[in-house]
Amino acid sequence: MTQDRTPPFAQPQAQQLLLDILPGTMPSLDAFVPGANLAALQSVRLLGPGRAVYLWGGIGSGRSHLLRARAQGAGCHYLDARSPAQRLHALATDEDQALSLVAVDDVADLNPAAQAALFALFNRWRTAAGTPGAFALLTAGDRAPLTMPLREDLRTRLGWDLVFRLEQLSDEDRAQALRDRARQRGLQLSDEVLHWILTRCDRDMGRLTTLIDSLDQYSLARHRPITLPLLKDLLADAPPPQRNP
Question: Which 3-state string (H, E, C) describes the chain?
Fold first, then answer.
């Protein structure tokens, strides 16, 4: 009888699989696979001072990838519902601090203090528009602005400028994106390996891309071709996840 070598965390019921603990890479706009979201990607890429974009979509739609990728460089800030409300409040009220872009993710989960701070940030954004102190505002959540479980005046502000719904990538788009990533690294994924990844892993393309990169490095280090047993060995050899206290 053949023993299943798949580690417990790689069983189908463990949807996050190992991707939470694989080494991450900094998201980039060039690495974002748009699918039906090309207009949203272009708006985020071209987002300039005095403009705002709100993105909404489910888990794996790529909204966090876009926010993190865009909020890089001088004067750019990325925050989410886990960030201290005081930090968001400081960005909203400290007019001596020059801002280029502020990205606020997971707005549906903001506590009352953070909601008040984001409301103040929107007011600063509107007041500064058209002045040398103008900055861009990029926000995201899991649902449309007016259905957010937030204070009413904040819900309306989320829809002040551009709003995009992010569509999930089709299975065909995901498969092609992984093939393209592998090809960029000089790899060829077998149908067996690709099918296993697409059916056992979550839909977040940033983390799937990280898996391909890690698989390439692991293959080189072990001097073994990329096969399903090698992929399972990679998952088994990965270190345990680091949990925040």
Answer: CCCCCCCHHHCCCCCCCCCCCCCCCCCCCCCCCCCCCHHHHHHHHCCCCCCEEEEECCCCCCHHHHHHHHCCCCCEEEECCCCCHHHHHHHHHCCCCCCCEEEECCHHHCCHHHHHHHHHHHHHHHHHCCCCCCCEEEEEECCCHHHCCCCHHHHHHHCCCEEEECCCCCHHHHHHHHHHHHHHCCCCCCHHHHHHHHHHCCCCHHHHHHHHHHHHHHHHHHCCCCCHHHHHHHHHHCCCCCCCC
Domains of the chain, start order: 38-165 (3.40.50.300), 169-237 (1.10.8)
Per-residue pLDDT of the chain (245 residues; tens, 9 = 90+): 433 333 333 333 333 444 444 445 678 898 788 889 999 999 999 999 999 999 999 887 889 999 999 999 999 999 999 999 999 999 999 988 999 999 999 999 999 999 999 999 999 999 999 999 999 999 999 999 999 999 999 999 999 999 999 998 888 888 888 888 888 888 888 999 998 988 887 667 777 888 888 888 889 989 999 999 999 888 877 655 444 33
pTM: 0.75
